[in-house]
Design brief:
The protein is an alpha/beta fold and about 600 residues long. It has 20 helices and 22 strands. The chain has 4 domains: about 140 residues, Resolvase, N-terminal catalytic domain (Rossmann fold, 3-Layer(aba) Sandwich), CATH 3.40.50.1390; about 110 residues, Putative Large Serine Recombinase, Chain B, Domain 2 (Hect, E3 ligase catalytic domain fold, Alpha-Beta Complex); about 170 residues, no CATH class; about 100 residues, no CATH class. The strands form 7 sheets. Strands 1, 2, 3, 4 and 5 form a 5-stranded parallel sheet that branches. Strands 13-14-15-22-19 form a 5-stranded mixed sheet. It starts with 9 loop residues before the first strand and ends in a 7-residue tail after the last strand.
Length: about 600
């Protein structure tokens, strides 16, 4: 056998994983052990020019059941950018315990010409027998994971059957001690308040308002990544979960049954019965035409302020409920007086699907995107021919089959008052076009969370204000008049006089109107432009509270924008406080800046631009 005297250097990345966080704080833990063994193996292959990369890919406390692990995603991202030639693991089940995920990973590695080595299981994936042994080993790894999961479920079921708490997030109102729930007196008062107010108001939204009014909040919690969620506001979904949890009357869920718990109840049986009766009546009134899981854009849709948009049910008419996507209000939105955005769910879904169909039928744009991901020659021509049938297929699919396609193609969708912006994955679009439409479209979890080649799709929308009144940034004057400037005040009054003269003498030319005011034509036009000043700027000049740097020449000579916010920045004014705004009835000349003005939610009309 010929040996290459000068082999090409192989950049080797070591991946390690441990399912539990127990023991990670030790000086030499399981991850360090795996890395040391893999490093020794790489050193033994020095004659093949193997070189260990200094970057660590360690997933401590992450299960091998899925590929949604932070360091694994970083590893795959580095593979895509061409930084890795060989991936080294201590054992096969360190990278995954699922056969389907491993098949996808191997396909992903072969696409980027990356070798995969497991040092404790000797196999060569370039041979048929090696691939057979690899699949057998992976099948046993998946079997071992499922057996371990069954043991954990059986143990939890046994603990629950004895009335003890098996673990996990403790319900609001309780703390746990030796697998027995103990009442937390401070939190128990909040739980009683929620039950009593719902029994009286019979509305989740009304109870949410009451909780916000009286400062009733939830508990701070965190996830396994260490992130702590400090927003303790109780939303309608959290309140609904509290109201249907039998733990508050002394029971625990054990599969499809409920068993008596060893803990003391917080709610009496009479109040519990009243609440459940109110919930059942509420469900009967809120009949819907399709379940929540049919909503195509749930989990992908955000508004222009970064707030997630969830599904809301409207009024029921003839047995059918109108569905909306609405922004989930948060503390920032309330403090900034930014009302939620609302949009009809069916209209927006049809609009996104129609825009996707237009992209598939737009050959120049489609070919440019496919070329960007390295698709050319015969494959490019074949995909271009199949794109037409793929676009027609989108309109014929059932919502259950269409949802995985939409969630695979789109990374994020943001809605504003005048447009919707959708980030599209070119790689997934290529997979969808090449799909043979047999069975159900499945997501490629190996590359689902990474999108190196994307396309920003802009779709224009029209919006309307949902409130009957508008807010103007005019605050009442506090205290006596300030240092009023005579030239500035005369300038504002002259601007009003010039506007009145134009309205009364529309038949005369501009130079005649300027002559009547004893102004040049240029100064007359500049005076007219001052009528577009923000109301709070004009009132500040008349009250004498304007900035000392504001002069008459600045107002006349500046290239004044029509945007009030830009005017305040240009002339040195501070933004007005929304809490001190004066409500006026329907000022037609102030409806322009919808996003700043108006207390009510903006309803986006997506149906206006739907293709016929």
């Amino acid at each position: 056998m010929d040996i290459d005297p000068n082999p090409e250097p192989q950049r080797c990345a070591i991946y390690t994983r441990k399912s539990l966080e127990l023991g990670l704080d030790q000086e030499f833990n399981s991850l360090e052990t795996q890395r040391a063994i893999c490093s020794a193996y790489i050193a033994s292959q020095r004659h093949k020019a193997w070189r260990e990369l200094p970057k660590h890919y360690d997933d401590g406390g992450w299960s091998g059941a899925t590929l949604n692990r932070p360091e694994l995603q970083n590893l795959l991202r580095d593979v895509e950018t061409g930084l890795i030639d060989t991936i080294i693991v201590y054992k096969l089940d360190r990278i995954t315990r699922t056969l389907l995920d491993f098949v996808r990973l191997m396909d992903f590695f072969e696409r980027y010409h990356v070798a995969f080595v497991s040092i404790t299981q000797n196999f060569d994936t370039s041979e048929t027998m090696g691939r057979l042994i690899l699949n057998v080993l992976l099948t046993f790894a998946q079997f071992e994971r499922e057996i371990a999961a069954d043991r954990i479920r059986d143990k939890q079921r046994l603990i629950r059957s004895t009335g003890r708490w098996p673990g996990g997030t403790t319900p609001l109102g309780y703390s746990v001690r030796r697998h027995v729930l103990q009442i937390n007196r401070a939190e128990a008062q909040r739980v009683r308040f929620i039950f009593e107010r719902f029994a009286e108001l019979r509305s989740l939204a009304a109870v949410e308002v009451e909780c916000r009014k009286y400062g009733v909040k939830g508990r701070r919690h965190g996830n396994k990544t260490g992130r702590v969620f400090s927003n303790q506001t109780l939303c309608s979904a959290t309140i609904s979960n509290v109201l249907r949890n039998p733990v508050y009357i002394g029971y625990l869920k054990c599969g499809s049954e409920t068993v008596h718990g060893l803990h003391a109840p917080i709610i009496g049986p009479e109040l519990w019965a009243r609440v459940q009766d109110a919930r059942s009546r509420l469900k009967q009134r809120r009949r819907t035409n399709r379940p929540y899981q049919y909503n195509l854009l749930s989990g992908l849709l955000y508004d222009c302020f970064g707030r997630r948009m969830g599904v809301h049910r409207g009024k029921v008419h003839k047995g059918v409920a109108t569905e909306y996507y609405a922004s989930k209000q948060n503390d920032w939105g309330r403090s900034q007086h930014q009302a939620p955005l609302w949009v009809r769910a069916d209209f927006l879904e049809r609009l996104l699907v129609a825009s996707l169909q237009n992209l598939l039928t737009d050959k120049p744009q489609l070919r440019a995107g496919l070329l960007k991901i390295g698709c050319f020659d015969a494959s490019l021509e074949e995909l271009g021919m199949r794109a037409i049938s793929a676009a027609e297929r989108l309109g014929d699919l059932d919502p259950r089959d269409l949802k995985p396609i939409v969630r695979s193609l789109f990374v994020r969708i943001e809605l504003s008052l005048d447009r919707v912006q959708a980030v599209l994955r070119w790689r997934e679009l290529e997979r969808y076009i090449a799909w043979d439409a047999i069975g159900t479209y499945r997501l490629d979890s190996a590359s689902n969370s990474r999108c190196t080649e994307t396309h920003l799709m802009n779709v224009a929308l029209s919006s309307e204000r949902g409130a009957r009144k508008q807010l103007l940034p005019i605050a009442p004057r506090e205290g006596p008049l300030g240092n009023r400037s005579g030239p500035l005040c005369r300038l504002v009054r002259d601007a009003r006089s010039a506007q009145q003269l134009v309205e009364e003498s529309r038949t005369q030319p501009v130079f005649e109107l300027a002559r009547q005011m004893r102004k040049s034509e240029c100064n007359f036009l500049r005076l007219l432009r001052l009528n577009y000043l923000a109301p709070d700027i004009a009132l500040a000049i008349l009250d004498g509270t304007q900035p000392p740097t504001l002069t008459r020449n600045m107002l006349l000579q500046a290239d004044m924008p029509l945007d009030w916010a830009l005017q305040r920045r240009l002339f040195g004014f501070t933004p007005p406080s929304p809490t001190r705004s004066l409500t006026v009835s329907e000022p037609r000349w102030a409806i322009g800046s919808q996003r700043v003005l108006g207390p009510g939610p903006a309803r986006v009309r997506a149906e206006a631009l739907l293709p016929s």
